[in-house]
Design goal:
With 745 residues, this protein is an all-beta fold. The chain has 1 helix and 77 strands. It is 2% helix and 56% strand. The two termini are 75 Å apart.
Length: 745
């Protein structure tokens, strides 16, 4: 047989597609990139004239006596006798059962479709139309668009409503059961006739495996049967039903440093959130509890956003409210946004027409503002910027609109003045709404009570309250700090000038630092650095002898001159001679210096207080410094005495100031003055503020006093310190256990 003919036959055979349950009857074939249908004897039933044969979701089985065909992105129905039953008018065709088909038709002028059931002849089952329709067992899940989302329900094959279209979600679980979400974290079990079997009792229900389904309630897993009855109690973090095992939640104990038990709870995690407040998480949600383990909220999607002395700002299911320490809602969680002021709140809600509206509330939640606003911006300056009818104004702390909403844009008050945009121009008003600087073209910045920066397309200038020019320039000016403006040339060079327009640093430098230690600025040009006083006097010019110029520490700057290091003061005077190979920085009046390959310390009058004996030397803290000698670490005092011998592999200060050391694989503890508190005997030591440390021994965690006396025995898998409430959270991790049987045994 010729090779070409073999290739054609092979290509034809490869283009035959099996049609599901009707595999012995029909197959799709391809010819000239078009598709048709043949029977199991190879007879052409439907000629290859269509872009596709089958259904929208890719299947190709025949339903009764019909199958779908596609032309130009639309679908129609054709019989196995090559009779077109409908024109290609559908955007979507998918079989529902052996007689009915889910059809979609595009809405006029949109890419969205409306869905319904048709029979084999293309006749609609009913006049009912939906925005979503999908098979779910022998029923269909339907939905219609509502606002920004959809509301779901359940219908039968005659499109009769079994569950009304009012729920946020419905999913098919198998076994003729459905999970219906009534609100976030509230799911009910329904049967195929639309009967509610359980009410909104669960967070979620997974598909049935036979007659049982895994479900979650109050953050814990269990199992239910098809009637919604509890078969395995809700007590587990994870489950392996096939192995009949489950893993409980970790046990958390809230303990004082003296091992006094405050609470025992079981959650995935417990996170301190404020004074006597905790976030307790399990599975996909959380609740808020107090330090006694009492739940202050039900289990939901809760999050503590901020904590205040008397209450917490809480987000619950994407809404905000205020919760007090006893679990009472001061303000219900019903606001889209909530800002807490000193004696008022700013709150936004969504209206029935889906518009956002802001109000000022008093401490009881009563509306103070006379209008609903599009936006409110919290400000510490006294008056609150508000937006109404797309224009801005200000309200006072009582909600009264004291400056009418007539401006296109406003800024918070500063020096009892505010920058506003009015009629396309910008000016400055006082607290009574009177013009301090009338609106003009350009941008205005308030610098002080009597100085303003005005930027226009012609240049920048400083003026007073009467708009009298004080200084003008074509350079770019921008506020730098409370004393100066930053001037920038077109080439990117910068300098400083004061609010009276006096140039204190010419615009020839690459960068200027913030004010350091409220004393000086450092300015850079290339690799060189200079020094400018707070008052604007150049203390060290950029043309100097320094090859390196370090940042300021303890009023001294490290410098390199002629390849050697020393220190200068704020006047640029050399206070420590440039005789050293390397230096650290000054703390507590002493600085590390390196001489002849070894490190020691000098004071501010260059007395060599600690001889250069060490491989490494670090800055002093609380009168002691870490040093390294012959590969081992220790500590010395300011006299150079070794208060902790240099024999440790690791050494660091803890938050209490105590010293944690490691010798081999064991950790010990010294006081801040170098006294031995705990000899190196633990696998780990975590120093804490106050009187306690966390230790690990034989893989378990406990707590001792700083002197090493055990208070919480090392029996826990993890211990963390809650520094807000000054207690310990001790965790015991669970192990897999056998699930109880249906009798609870």
């Amino acid at each position: 047989m010729p090779l070409v003919l073999k290739t054609i036959i092979l290509s034809f055979c490869l283009s035959l597609f099996t049609l599901g349950a009707n595999a012995t009857e029909y197959s799709v074939f391809v010819k000239n990139n078009l598709k048709g249908l043949v029977d199991n004897e190879g007879n052409e039933i439907i000629p290859a004239e269509y872009d596709d044969i089958g259904w929208s979701r890719g299947s190709t089985h025949v339903v009764g006596r019909v199958i779908g065909y596609r032309k130009r992105n639309n679908w129609g129905l054709i019989s196995t006798k090559n009779e077109k039953l409908t024109r290609a008018i559908y955007s979507y065709l998918v079989p529902f059962d052996k007689q009915l088909i889910i059809a979609g038709i595009r809405k006029d002028g949109t890419n969205r479709s409306t869905y319904f059931l048709i029979n084999e002849s293309g006749k609609p089952v009913s006049k009912q139309r939906y925005d979503y329709l999908a098979a779910a067992g022998n029923r269909l899940i339907a939905a219609n668009n509502r606002g920004r989302g959809q509301l779901f329900g359940l219908v039968d094959a005659k499109q009769r409503t079994l569950i009304s279209l009012q729920f946020s979600d419905i999913s098919y679980l198998g076994a003729s059961r459905y999970a219906v979400t009534t609100q976030p974290n509230a799911v009910a079990l329904y049967d195929a006739d639309g009967n509610d079997l359980t009410g909104p009792s669960f967070q979620f229900i997974n598909p049935f495996d036979g007659t049982l389904a895994e479900a979650a309630k109050d953050g814990k897993l269990g199992q239910i049967d098809t009637g919604g009855n509890i078969v395995i109690p809700f007590a587990y973090r994870r489950m392996k039903p096939g192995e009949n095992t489950g893993m409980p939640f970790p046990e958390w104990k809230l303990l004082t440093g003296q091992n006094e038990l405050l609470a025992t709870v079981k959650y995935d995690s417990v996170i301190p959130a404020g004074k006597n407040l905790y976030r307790a998480r399990s599975l996909k949600g959380e609740l808020i509890m107090n330090g006694s383990g009492k739940a202050l909220t039900d289990y939901c999607s809760c999050h503590i956003a901020s904590v205040y002395p008397e209450y917490a700002l809480v987000r619950r299911d994407d809404k905000y409210g205020l919760l007090d320490r006893e679990g009472t809602w001061v303000l219900p969680p019903s606001y889209d946004s909530l800002i807490v002021g000193k004696d008022f709140y700013l709150a936004s809600s969504t209206t029935a027409t889906r518009l956002t509206q802001w109000h000022m509330l008093d401490e009881s939640g009563k509306e103070l503002s006379e209008y609903g606003y599009q936006t409110m911006i919290y400000s510490e300056s006294g008056l609150i910027p508000v937006k109404r009818r797309n224009l801005w104004g200000y309200i006072d702390r009582k909600g009264k609109e004291v400056i009418p909403a007539i401006y296109q844009k406003v800024e918070p008050y500063r020096f009892d003045m505010a920058v506003v945009d009015y009629m396309g121009a910008q000016g400055v008003i006082d607290r009574d709404g009177e013009w301090v600087i009338s609106p003009k073209e350009g941008r205005v910045d308030i610098l002080s009570e009597n100085r303003f920066l005005v930027k226009t397309r012609w240049g920048n200038h400083i003026c007073d309250r009467h708009r009298r020019p004080v200084y003008e320039t074509e350079q770019q000016l921008s506020p730098f700090d409370s004393l100066h403006l930053l001037a920038t040339t077109d080439e990117g060079k910068v300098g400083l000038l004061d609010f009276s327009g006096n140039m204190v640093l010419s615009t020839m430098y690459d960068a200027v630092s913030p004010l350091m230690q409220d004393t000086v600025y450092i300015f850079d040009k290339g690799e060189k650095r200079g020094l400018l006083s707070k008052s604007g006097k150049v203390m060290i010019p950029i043309e100097n002898e320094f090859e390196e110029f370090h940042d300021m520490h303890d009023d001294f700057f490290g410098v390199r001159i002629g390849g050697k290091y020393g220190f200068v003061d704020v006047n640029g005077d050399l206070r420590i001679a440039n005789r050293y190979d390397s230096i650290g920085h000054f703390t507590e009046g002493m600085a590390p210096i390196k001489l002849l390959g070894r490190w020691g310390y000098v004071d501010k009058i260059e007395r060599l207080l600690v001889q250069p004996l060490y491989d490494e030397a670090y800055p002093f803290h609380d009168g002691m410094a870490i040093i390294k000698m012959k590969g081992k670490y220790g500590m010395i005092n300011k006299e150079g005495d070794r208060v902790i011998e240099a024999k440790y592999d690791e050494i660091h200060r803890g938050p209490s100031g105590r010293i944690v050391v490691r010798l081999g694989d064991r950790y010990g503890l010294f006081s801040s003055s170098g006294e031995t508190l705990i000899i190196p005997k633990y696998e780990k030591i975590t120093d804490l503020p106050g009187e306690y440390v966390i230790i690990r021994r034989h893989g378990k965690y406990g707590v001792t006093t700083k002197a090493g006396r055990s208070t919480i025995p090392p029996i826990y898998d993890t211990i963390t310190y809650d520094d807000i409430n000054e207690i310990f959270l001790a965790v015991t991790e669970p192990e897999w256990e056998n699930l109880p049987n249906q009798e609870g045994e």
